[in-house]
């Protein structure tokens, strides 16, 4: 089994910063993509940022220049540094990883961590 454990969410004022972490553990041979999605009651889950094993990254337009995704490959961990937070960044943030074992890639999700940005 594979587990993704997230941490770092919380309440912050607009303009502030938070750093999310997500560590993958369990039956892992290799990880391709690791990233972050977010969801609110009003919107479908959307991509925030993803980092591929080749080093490439992709960000939602709404967070470019404010959020930075990074990975520690040795620790199977992905981070999301969120700066200049806005109230519209309020959401549940989910970690996602594409993990390879037993000859197949499988998609895994964390339990979600709440980020609330007050105005």
List keywords for this structure.
seven-stranded mixed beta sheet; mainly beta; single chain; 119 residues; four-stranded antiparallel beta sheet; 11 strands
Would you give an account of this structure?
The chain is an all-beta fold and 119 residues long. It has strands spanning 2-7, 10-13, 18-26, 30-40, 43-51, 57-59, 67-72, 77-82, 91-101, 104-109, 113-118. β4 and β5 (43-51) form a beta hairpin. The radius of gyration is 14 Å and the shape is elongated. The mean pLDDT is 96.
Number of helices: 0
Strand content: over 45%
Helical percentage = under 10%
Total beta strands? 11
Structural class: mainly beta
Mean pLDDT: 96
**Poorly predicted ranges:** none
**Main sheet record:** 7 strands, mixed
Question: How are the elements arranged and paired?
Answer:
Layout: E1 2-7, E2 10-13, E3 18-26, E4 30-40, E5 43-51, E6 57-59, E7 67-72, E8 77-82, E9 91-101, E10 104-109, E11 113-118
Parallel strand pairs: 2-11
Antiparallel strand pairs: 1-3, 3-8, 4-5, 4-9, 5-6, 7-8, 9-10, 9-11
Summarize the structure.
By secondary structure, the chain is mostly beta strands. It has strands at 2-7, 10-13, 18-26, 30-40, 43-51, 57-59, 67-72, 77-82, 91-101, 104-109, 113-118.
């Amino acid at each position: 089994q594979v587990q993704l454990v997230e941490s770092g969410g919380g309440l912050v004022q607009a303009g502030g910063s938070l750093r999310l972490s997500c560590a993958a553990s369990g039956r892992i041979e290799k990880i391709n993509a690791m990233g972050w999605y977010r969801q609110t009651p009003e919107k479908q889950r959307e991509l925030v940022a993803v980092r591929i094993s080749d080093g490439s990254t992709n960000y939602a337009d709404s967070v470019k220049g404010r959020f930075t995704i990074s990975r520690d490959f040795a620790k199977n961990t992905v981070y999301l540094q969120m700066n200049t937070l806005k109230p519209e960044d309020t959401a549940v943030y989910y970690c996602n990883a594409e993990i390879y074992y037993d000859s197949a890639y499988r998609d895994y999700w964390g339990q979600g961590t709440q980020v609330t940005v007050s105005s």
